[in-house]
Structure formats: structure tokens, C-alpha cells
Amino acid sequence: MTVTRQTFDQVMIPCYVPQDMVLQRGSGCYLYDTEGKRYLDLSAGIAVNCLGHNHPEVVKTISEQAQRLIHVSNIFVNDKTLTLASELTALTGFDKVFFTNSGAEANEAALKLARRVAYDNFGPKKDEIISFAHSFHGRTLFSVSVGGQPKYSTGFGPIPGGITHLPFNDSAALEQTISDKTCAVILETIQGEGGILPIDPEFLVKVRHLCDQHHALLIFDEVQTGVGRTGYFYSFEQFKDLDGGKGVRPDIMSSAKGLAAGIPIGAILTTDEIAAHFKPGTHGSTFGGNPLACAVGSVVLHTVSQPEFLAHVRAMGDLIKTKLNELNAKYHCFAQLRGQGLLIGAELSSDYQGQSSTLQKLCTKHGLLVLVAGANVLRLTPPLIITPSEVNAAMELLEEALQEFTAQ
Ligand SMILES: *Cc1c(COP(=O)(O)O)cnc(C)c1O
Asked: Is the CA virtual torsion 89, 92, 97, 103 positive or negative?
């Protein structure tokens, strides 16, 4: 059967407007379309393919595990799920894991767990979830309603109640709003889809204090910031010295995207005390934590958690930022560079407002795959294994695209 980009318009529900080519295979940081054209990939399946495409150890693990065991459901346990759960808890200092298939499902589980903890401890009135403007937590009705981008939840009502949105990094607004009715505050340490907007550490300390004061749980959505993306295995590790050395830790953390290098998986991590509120039958998943995904998850964890690997992520992030600054000195196209490690946002300058998709298309034309975060931000989330020469090659392609973009 021959398929083309037009096939998408014929048979796919039009939730997306994909770029013009049809991708067929990948290797390392490169992707190839059905016509053999090569693309340098700075999107990595939206911060998912952390080890690039067709990583030999990932391929080997998938084929070996497929020959052994793919799926058994959670009414049985299997060796790979228990192994990844043990490794993740040991690495993060949490006690317990629940596995899902995606980030939205992980947040759904986190939010349901927070509601159940409040219900058990304080009764049904403590149900308020506080989240922040521009946040993104997934596309299930609950997670999308909690997310702070109304355009994603409009038209799907009635949406779940008990959700309050506040401006991000605004301590005063939180202090005024949080109360003993609040059961959880959920946040991203760097808002990814919202435009690569980092949290203010002082605000974070305030959030932790206010949550403690009102017996509300603090949930970190590390779906995009996790698994090495920021140069830490989970971004919250960098907050261990905040608050006069006490550190700031979440009560529940969600993870997904890069966790199994492209095989669908998600997870929440929490403490024994909180986990005890999910009793047998209160929550579940058919596929979540299947042995295939978990076997790959262990490979990712062993590889990405190495200090040298994380140092490489930080170094490549610095190199990209240096190169972007050089390009900006020439083309004056960016107002600000933001982000950490290999989660990078370049906000377009005032001359180019609303044109991130135009720039993205030009990049594709020149053989470079990039992401956007809204209409004004170019977002780069390359495979974490990207090399200095690949960064240089990518920045040459970006320059070609920028030449055309700024000439228009
Ligand atoms: C991508 C993302 C999600 C949703 O993950 P899915 O796997 O698409 O359900 C949730 N939260 C954040 C911060 C994300 O970046």
C-alpha cells in the first residue's frame, strides 16, 4: 500500500497538522522520510526519544523482551516491572510507584490519589486542586481541565469541578487563594508546552510552605522535565538545597515521555504514607507497567542516570544556547532564550510575533526538525545523546532557515 501526506487528510481525525513529509525510519539523531530525505531531529518525538532513534541497546532489549514476555496485566506481577519499580524508587528516594501508559494518565493518577488522601483524612469538602496558568498536564478531561490553557478544555464541558487556576510564580495570589479546602497544588518546574517558563525557586519554597500549612499535597509534573532532560535525572533534584538546606520535594511526582525511550510508559512516585490511600480496586490500568515498557525503562534509567551522561546533557544545552546567541547576534530574531539542559525555548522577538510555526516549517524544509511551544516560542528537545558535531550541523541548518525567515 502506498501512503502519502494526503492520506493523513483522508483517514486521520484532524487533531494535528503534520509537516509535509511521511517519516519512515530513524537512526541516532537523524530521521528519514519515504523519499529518502534526511532530517536532523531536535524534537525527539516531543522530548521522548532520549536515546535517539534505533538505539542499539533499546532495540536489543525490545526484541529480547518481546521474545520472552510482552504483557500479562497487573493482576500478575512480572520481573521487569518489579525491577524498574525498585530502580526508580532507589534513584529518587520515593517509596512507591504506580505505572501508566502516558503522561496524562500519570497526572490523572496523581490527582485522583491527592483527592483520595484528602477525602480519607479530612472528608469530601477538601477537594480543591490548584494549578497554574500556561501549565500543561495532558489531554484526559481531568488533566486537561487542570492544565492552565483554556483553549484545550473549551467545548468539552461540563468539565470537572474543584479546580482553581492561578498565575504562575505569583506567591501573593497563592497565599490569598490556598485554604484548608485545597487538597493539592500541581506544577511543572519548567512549563514545557506553555513556552519553556521556569519556576522561580523562591515561589517554589513558598508553595511548599503553604501546602504544608494547609495539608495540601504538592505534585510535580515531571513528564517533560524528567528523565535527564534538564541535566538532572528529575529536575527536583536541583532543589535539595533550597529553603535554608531543607530542600523542596514533591509529595507525588509524575513521569512519562522519555522514561522508556519511545515505548509508551508513565509513572507516579510517592511516599508509603500517601500510597496507602490507593487500596486494591481504587485505581488501575490494563497495560500500565507492562514488562516490555519496563524492560526498556531500566535501560533508560541505567544510561541516563550516569553522572557523565547528565554532564553531557548540560554541556550540549550550553553549546546550543551559545550557538543560538551567535545566531541571534546576526539575525535579531529572538527576544529571550530560556530553559535548562536540553529543554530549550527561544522566544521570537517582537518583529516575529505569532510566527513560530512558519519558522518550524522553514526548518523542516532545510532538513531540521524542531518544535514550537505556542505561537511565539521555538522549542528544542533533541535526543540527549546529541553530539557537538550534530549540534553544529543543526545550527547551520537553523541558520539557513533563519536567513529565509528573516528575509520574508
Ligand atoms: C507531554 C506532557 C503531558 C502529557 O503526556 P502524554 O503522554 O501526552 O499524555 C503531561 N504533562 C507534561 C508536563 C507534558 O509535557
From this structure: negative
256 lines ligand 1 (CB under 6 A): yes
**Tell me: the pLDDT tens digits for 157-204?**
999 999 999 999 999 999 999 999 999 999 999 999 999 999 999 999
Distances, alpha carbon 73 to alpha carbons 85, 261, 293, 365, 370, in Å: 15, 21, 12, 43, 36
Spatial distance between the Cα atoms of 29 and 47, rounded to a whole number of angstroms: 12
Residue 408 scores a pLDDT above 90: no
Ligand 1 atom with the smallest distance to the CA of 224 is 15
Q: Which residues pair with 336 in a beta bridge?
A: 347
* Rounded distance between C-alpha atoms, residue 210 and residue 335, angstroms: 34
Name 368's bridge partners.
40
d(CA 306, CA 149): 35
- Counting Cα atoms < 13 Å in the Cβ hemisphere of 158 gives 3
| Ligand 1 pocket, residue 216 CB under 6 Å | no
Count of beta carbons in the 10 Å neighbourhood of residue 161: 9
Distance CA 193, CA 196 (A): 7
The Cβ-side half-sphere exposure at 369, using a 13 Å CA radius, reads: 26
DSSP-derived secondary structure letter, 245: T
Q: 266-289 pLDDT, tens per residue?
A: 999 999 999 999 999 999 999 999
Task: Return the ∠ at Cα 276 (arms to 272 and 277), rounded to 5°.
Answer: 135
Report the separation in Å between the CA atom of 9 and the middle of ligand 1, taken as the mean of its atom positions. 25
Residue whose CA lies nearest to ligand 1 atom number 6: 103
The finding on whether 264 has its CB within 6 A of some atom of ligand 1 is no
If you take atom 15 of ligand 1, which residue's CA is the nearest one? 224
Instruction: Summarize the confidence of residues 23-42 as an average pLDDT.
Output: 98
**Helices in 123-194 by DSSP H: which ranges?**
141-146, 150-153, 171-177
User: Separation of 143 CA from ligand 1 center, angstroms?
Assistant: 9
